[in-house]
Write a structure and sequence with these properties.
Elements (H helix, E strand, L loop, with lengths): L1 E5 L2 E3 L5 E8 L7 E7 L6 E6 L6 E3 L7 E6 L4 E6 L8 E9 L2 E4 L3 E5 L2
Parallel strand pairs: 2-11
Antiparallel strand pairs: 1-3, 3-8, 4-5, 4-9, 5-6, 7-8, 9-10, 9-11
Length: about 120
């Protein structure tokens, strides 16, 4: 099982990035997906999640209206589209998948928002 996140990098405030997370070793269709982040010196926090059945989504208040979670089950890939980025969005972003008692995490990708 592997979750490979990519798309992080340095972006100016107000800019956009799209994170991708491609999974292998299992089929994403039956898994809820999510993105978490951990800023320097802070605890890991949930950013967004999407259910496996009805595609329902949820977002942290801090990212509502700016971030969009999505999935392409055919490609076994999940995405996090981030817009209007702020310096406080700087963090390592982690993708995760969960189904029943199984939960998998990616290694994280660093997003730095700075001018």
């Amino acid at each position: 099982v592997q979750l490979q996140a990519s798309g992080g990098g340095l972006v100016q405030p107000g800019g956009s990035l799209r994170l991708s997370c491609t999974v292998s070793g299992f089929t994403l269709d039956y898994y809820a997906i999510g993105w978490f982040r951990q800023a320097p010196g802070k605890e890991r926090e949930g950013v967004s999640c999407m259910s496996s059945n009805d595609g329902g989504t949820d977002y942290a208040d801090s990212v509502k209206g700016r971030f969009t979670i999505s999935r392409d089950n055919a490609k076994n890939t999940m995405y996090l589209q981030m817009s209007s980025l702020k310096p406080e969005d700087t963090a390592v972003y982690y993708c995760t998948s969960r189904s029943g008692g199984r939960e998998y995490w990616g290694a994280g990708t660093l997003v730095t928002v700075s001018s």
